[in-house]
Design goal:
Elements (H helix, E strand, L loop, with lengths): L2 H16 L3 H12 L5 H17 L3 H15 L6 H12 L3 H11 L7 H19 L2
Helix pairs in contact: 1-2, 2-3, 3-4, 4-5, 5-6, 6-7
Length: about 130
């Protein structure tokens, strides 16, 4: 897929979300996920789909879609999607899952030192939150 079409479709999906046409946006994003785009771009489109599922109130579908996005991301050196899912778990109050996700990120082959420190701090905060009644 050429870059112009990719950009055009991604922008169209974004416009549809703003217009409240989330299912139509998901259709476009899923088409991009199935395309021949690079793995990172497909992972990002899949993550955007997860975000839309969350906006629609379906956190289970959002988590399922985050998993698909991470599977795509694993073909790259990136861990942005995995980091986003870890944060999403904490947003849902799923602190143990969030801690596990950040802990997995600590073993990422391409982890930057500054991210390592941030993930360790996140784990500490989440452990504290998990103990709060």
């Amino acid at each position: 897929m050429d870059k112009q079409l990719y950009t055009s479709l991604a922008n169209r999906a974004s416009d549809l979300v703003v217009a409240g046409e989330r299912l139509k946006a998901i259709d476009i994003l899923e088409e991009l996920v199935r395309s021949d785009l690079p793995a990172f771009d497909r992972a990002m489109m899949c993550m955007n789909t997860a975000i839309i599922h969350d906006q629609m109130g379906d956190s289970d579908k959002a988590l399922e879609t985050y998993c698909r996005a991470i599977d795509l991301e694993q073909a790259t050196e990136s861990y942005f999607v995995a980091q986003s899912r870890a944060a999403y778990y904490s947003e849902l109050g799923m602190y143990d899952e969030s801690i596990r996700s950040y802990d997995d990120l600590l073993r990422h082959d391409h982890l930057k030192p500054e991210d390592r420190e941030m993930f360790l701090k996140n784990i500490k905060t989440l452990r504290h939150l998990g103990k709060t009644p």
